[in-house]
Predict the structure.
Amino acid sequence: MHTGQLLGSGRTADVYALDGSWVLRRYRDRSDTTEELAVMSYVGAFGFPVPRIGPPAEGARPTDLVLQRLTGPTLAEALPAGRLGAAEAGALLARLLRELHAIPPRVSTNPEDCVLHLDLHPENVMLTAEGAVVIDWSSAAEGPPGLDRAMSALTLARIALDPAFPAGADVRPLLAALLAELADDGGVSAADLAPARTRQQQNPYLTEAERGRLDEAVDLVLDSSP
């Protein structure tokens, strides 16, 4: 099928313009997007901010998603540009996690489970004129909310420790702000961080250097917690 301009590339997917309203998200190494579509449809029905899902494009592959074209920066772009501060960004991430975890599980029969994004960090939050929208649901699952909080915090800590990340040191105030906001929701404990660390250790898309910083990242999260 014909795709338009390449708008961006991540670790697993490329995003192409289709027209002014829709984009094509094409995974390079995923065989099927059925589950991701199901999760997005489910949380969207509860009013959680996700991109609208478009009709399948002619000639689409099983690895393709047609999604609403969003206009605006990511939270990761807005922070260094001074469009909002660490405290405001931390409050936004915490609110999104809180609202997501208020949604009952779609398939789990455990009443303590909820929907988890498991990759909710500044690059996966788009700031549109209508408000924040959460993208990239490829890692979504169901389970205890503490795991999701820990995954977000551990990702921020790992970025803060990355010497290749030019604004790495600036992530620490955001991490502290997020952890402060999450304190009333149960915070991020060592018990939450253990499975989060295992999950990130097993992530095939992380580099060996990123995996090597996970222990230090766990310590940074615990040291930054109120």
Q: What stands out?
A: DSSP finds eight helices and eight strands in the chain. The longest strand covers residues 22-27. The longest helix spans residues 86-101. The chain has a mean pLDDT of 90.
